[in-house]
Amino acid sequence: MALNKSMHPRNRYKDKPPDFAYLASKYPDFQKHVHTSLSGRVGLNFKDPEAVRALTCTLLKEDFGLSIEIPLERLIPTVPLRLNYIHWVEDLIGSSGGGDAGEGPRRGIDIGTGASCIYPLLGATMNGWFFLATEVDDICFNYAKKNVEQNGLSDLIKVVKVPQKTLLMDALKEESALVYDFCMCNPPFFANQLEAKGVNSRNSRRPPPSSVNTGGVTEIMAEGGELEFVKRIIHDSLQLKQRLRWYSCMLGKKCSLAPLKEELKKQGVPKVTHTEFCQGRTMRWALAWSFYEDVSVPSPPSKKRKMEKARKPLSFSLLLPTVKLLQAKAPSIGCSAHGSLDVVTAWVEKTLTELRVLYKRVPSGSAERSLFLTAVENSWVHARQKRRDQGRQLRELPRAPCRDDGATSHAADNGLQSDGPHSMCTEKTPDVELVECKGEVNSGSDVATQEVATSVACSTTPPSSSTAQPFLFKCLTNVKLEGGGQRVTDEDDVMLEMHWVEGLNRDLMNQLCTYLKNTLLRLASNPQ
């Protein structure tokens, strides 16, 4: 569950994911869908609709005391995602000001409640909210009504059957002039069958979904997909305006967010916000807007999550035995130092030189060595295959001795060097001017990206040109003791960290980090 740390802070599953083993021991219907790997890890097949349904029903029973029934041919909701949405609505209406804010019961509308009726059931059980739950599908309507009744929540939840393409306007015609605090909606994500299968809507580089896609036609598909569906809700909101304090929708595609925000801006809606719902390997986005000037708009938590992700450095560790092997080979690269940090740094510098990555040592503490890197070309992709090809070509080329006449000076004029009259000619490596850095960098482990970017001014002018050389990315690389101590010792593991500064794509730094790791490990394990 890679995204669980970014769940809503009040989500009960954020720091405590479901214990499948415990749930299997308590609920026989769930136990038959659980499998145990050879390593003893308990898991679930999320591509099996029955297993997904068993998990949803079990979590609602165990954690919320709700007993529900869901047909396999209709949408099976996941509890952590729906809980994220409920908590975000709490943030929206909890920050509302003026009038009756904080007074009386909260009232909400769930557009297309589904067979599970999960949003009203959770909102009513957790917070005592009143709900108007609408549904167009006969099967979903019957199941939703049954689920409300068997949980004794009919006094809080009213499930109504509405005509096709009905959203807010028609649903509120027979209602009194009550002001609702919010509406929720999980709109159909797809415009057609091809999108539902991921043919047109899913990036070809992305892996296939890890869970099964269930749901009826009206639940997963609508004319124009989610974009046009939400635009219809916006159209209704322009007529209803302050009948609802907050209008909100969940989105399945991030690309839908920008055009919908632009539409709200064009219509002059005063208050607009959005958020991300992160859980497991799934991400969803949500949009909310209000015509009330006195509401406080919660800041999108996605900004904080992205900033934390950007600040986190890439890193890998070299264990002490690996460092010892590198120390034994240090003389082969002309490294006279014996300290683990100096030796690892020397090997890193050698690798960077081979890759034509520009670097400059910057001041650092005694327990750390720092390099400021500027990558001007992607020379590490397929480098292993390139080495093999070059080696094969060299083996296939005929070799002839150099003549002891004017050929030597002629070779020198063409960038070749000769060690004697009978030596083999080898290509002389041209001198490459490294990055010239001005200023100093505090390269401790607490250095922030912005500090590095502003305190180091680098020029990357190539030998053959006086113009500024473009670069792929710049980063600060720290080689330091694993324990973070201040005393240099040969008895500690060594960690290499790469802090992003600026550039085209952070994935390029990730590739270089992986290449450095594999190269250092290969050097240490190579007996030659």
What's the short version?
This protein is of the alpha+beta class and 528 residues long.
Textual characterization of the structure:
The chain has 528 residues and is of the alpha+beta class. The chain has 2 domains: 229 residues, 3-Layer(aba) Sandwich (Rossmann fold), CATH 3.40.50.150; 165 residues, no CATH class. Helix content is 35%, strand content 19%. It has 17 helices and 18 strands. The strands form 5 sheets. The protein has a 7-stranded mixed β-sheet, sandwiched between helices. A 5-stranded antiparallel β-sheet has the order 10-18-17-12-11. The longest helix has 20 residues. The radius of gyration is 31 Å and the shape is elongated.
Features:
single chain; 528 residues; alpha+beta; Rossmann fold; 2 domains; 7-stranded mixed β-sheet; 5-stranded antiparallel β-sheet; 17 helices; 18 strands; 35% helix
Give the uncertain stretches in residue-range form: 95-102, 190-202, 215-221, 402-468
Main sheet specs: 7 strands, mixed
CATH architecture type of the largest domain: 3-Layer(aba) Sandwich
Number of strands: 18
The helical percent reads: 25-40%
